[in-house]
Each structure stands twice: as structure tokens, then as C-alpha cells.
């Protein structure tokens, strides 16, 4: 009995550690949710802020938190380069700040620091829009670095590459879904341009496998900025990949394709790039078609190439759509943010029924993905206005809080939660909000 109780206590403590950390940009469960409680519901730039830290540049990346470490990717606007930062969670002090590479952007919509870091508690991996991948230990020692473009050929994206890496089952997974022809002078001409998923060893960067992922998309519709999402169902683990007008599930062991469905683009429209990642809940896999198109729900456990019988439902209301923000699964419900005409919808996973939709009065565009925690939903718009919505049976906008820096117009970072605190990234500032510590601004 003592042994049993000890095991139960150990399992409970491990669960608490997992819940307290935010190791991936979609959180500990890869769905935007966490079990955190007692999170702040009323704050400002001057009230409820434990600390704020000035960052060397902007980024769409989400802060990553593991115990007392906060990891942030950032552009460096002075030198037009990329940086990897680690901050002390308690004080906001920058513990290390590493230059990773030169270069800044391919367009005026984003920069190379758009991807979020990821950690397994031992190694933290930073990925950048120029293909640079760098891994550090928690003391800031660089363990390895490689460049995806040098290893596998130049990217063929019209815009700046922005997928994030994922760590799962002791592997680092990165997807590159780009067009099969050069664009704007980018992309190889000496051989076919393949889209692919690659698995790397976290400690060394050694390639474990690489799987080519074809699609029937045309031109820009090949391009995806989504992230590999791990999913387990009935004992089967898989990686969910969306982009190229289709969704696929892959074995984490070797990348082999387990199933495929397509398409939300039967007319093969050429400009339907894909941004939102997949999200799962209650045995349902959700994928968002772009440009105001429906959200598609799939039955888990499929094998092989599927027809529409694998669909559990697809949305019919125009409000239930997302062009950029990845949906949230929280407490048995999907929450979907439509950013162009800002609103948030709560949807039942089993039926696809829209239980409610609430409009956001501030009409500024939203591209950050929602966080679900403590019976609340948190997200921000381009100006850095933070919205707090009740995760309840009816729409309730609890608070709108201006947190943006002067001149902010393209804030895309999602809000993270860890250890009873929120981490909010604006144009050039990272805020830690909540808790009881009172520390001078950094």
C-alpha cells in the first residue's frame, strides 16, 4: 500500500509539473490549454505586472516556460539578425542572449523570428524563418546548429517561413511545406522541390528520418506555416500535418503516412496558403481551411487515403472559420477565433454545433491563437489589446486590456500561462502578469 501511494503521489507531482510548464507554443497538451488556476483577470501595464523585459526586436513567437526559465526568440533590429534569449521567470532578468544568425526577413509582414522555441526540459530548440535551427542547454551552451536550407535545399515560399518545431517522443519534428516551383528567385532549380517532415535528435541535431510529403496543390496553396501536432488515439501515436490542401497523419517512428484526406480546395485555387495548425479533442481532429472557408472535423483512427466519410462534420456558419489563429480545445469544447472580422465561437466537438459566437468590438485584426485556462480564454489583437472571454455556456467578454507598445500594429504572439502567471509578448516587451512577487521593472 505504501508503494502504491508513493506511485500515485509521484504521478500526481509529474502531472503538476507538466501543467505548470508551457513547453510548446500550444502548451503542455498541444491544444492551447493548461490546467493552471488563479490566473489574473484584471491587470494593466502598471498593475499586476510582476516584471517586464525589453526585447531586442519583434516576433510572432510565443514565450516558452519551463520551471524558472522563460525562452524567447527575437529579431535584433539593430544588427538585422536573430537572437535566442533565456530569462529568469521570477525576476525577468536576461540570463543569456545568444546571437544565432544574420538576416531579418523576406517580406514586410513578418521576420525570421516568427517560429516559437520548444523544450523538453533539458534542451531548448530555436527555429528561424531562414531555416536556422539551434539547440541550447539551459545554461546557454550551444549544443548544435544546422540550417534546413543548406541541408535540404532553398525554401520556395512567397512569404517568410514561420512553422514552429515540436518535441515529442524524444524527437524534434519540423515540417517544411512549400511550393514545388521557385518563387521570387527562391527555391532550387537543380532538382525537384519536395515538401517534407524531418526528425532530429534533440541532444545532437542528428537526422533520424526525413519523409517527403507530396500534395496536389498548385502554386501558393502548397505553402503552409503550420506546426506538427502530436496526437494519440486508441494506442496509436501520430503527427498531424496540415497544408497543401490536405491533412495527413504520420508515424513518429519513421514519418510513414498513416492516413490522408483532401481537399478543402476542389477547384485548386492557387493562393490558399495554410496557417493554422491542427487541434484535437474528444476523438475529433480539427483543421481550418483558409480564406473564410469552413472548419473540417475528422474522426480519429483513420487509415489510408480517405473520402468524405472520414468527416465528422464541417462548419456551415461563416463565423466558424479561421484563416490564421489555431483553434483551442478546452474543457470539452473547441474555441475558434476568426481574425478578419474579429469574433470567437464555441463549438461542440461531437456535432459541430455552434453554441455561441461573440463579436469583439475592437475591429483590429487578430492572428494570435487563444489560450484556455482557469475558465477563461485569453488572446490579443494586432495592437496588443488583450481580450479575456469566459469559457462558459454563453459569450461573456470579461475584459479588454491595452498592453501593446506605442506603434504596435502586427502583434501575433499567443499568450502563455505557467505557475499562476501570464506571459504576454507585445512588439518589444515581454510582460509577466500575476502572482505575488513585486520586482522592479527590467
Helix coverage percent of residues?
Answer: under 10%
- Give the averaged pLDDT, no decimals: 93
- Give unreliable regions as ranges: 1-17, 437-442
CATH architecture: 7 Propeller
Shape: globular
Structural class: mainly beta
Measured between the Cα atoms of the first and last residue, the distance is 50 Å
CATH overall fold name: Methylamine Dehydrogenase, Chain H
> How many discrete domains?
1
Look at the structure and name the CATH superfamily.
Answer: YVTN repeat-like/Quinoprotein amine dehydrogenase
Number of strands: 33
**Name of the CATH first level:** Mainly Beta
Strand content: 35-45%
Biggest sheet, spatial arrangement of strands: 14-15-16-17-21
- What does the main sheet amount to? 5 strands, mixed
Rg from alpha-carbon coordinates: 21 Å
Number of H- or I-type helical stretches: 2
Task: Quickly list its features.
single chain; 442 residues; mainly beta; Methylamine Dehydrogenase, Chain H; 5-stranded mixed sheet; 2 helices; 5% helix; 38% strand; disordered N terminus
Write the layout of secondary structure elements.
Layout lengths: L1 H19 L28 E6 L9 E3 L2 E8 L4 E8 L5 E9 L15 E2 L3 E5 L4 E6 L4 E6 H5 L13 E3 L2 E6 L19 E5 L6 E6 L16 E5 L2 E8 L2 E5 L6 E5 L17 E3 L2 E5 L6 E5 L4 E2 L5 E4 L13 E3 L2 E6 L4 E5 L6 E6 L11 E3 L2 E5 L4 E6 L6 E6 L13 E3 L2 E5 L3 E5 L9
Parallel strand pairs: 17-21
Antiparallel strand pairs: 1-33, 2-3, 3-4, 4-5, 6-7, 7-8, 8-9, 10-11, 11-12, 12-13, 14-15, 15-16, 16-17, 18-19, 19-20, 20-22, 23-24, 24-25, 25-26, 27-28, 28-29, 29-30, 31-32, 32-33
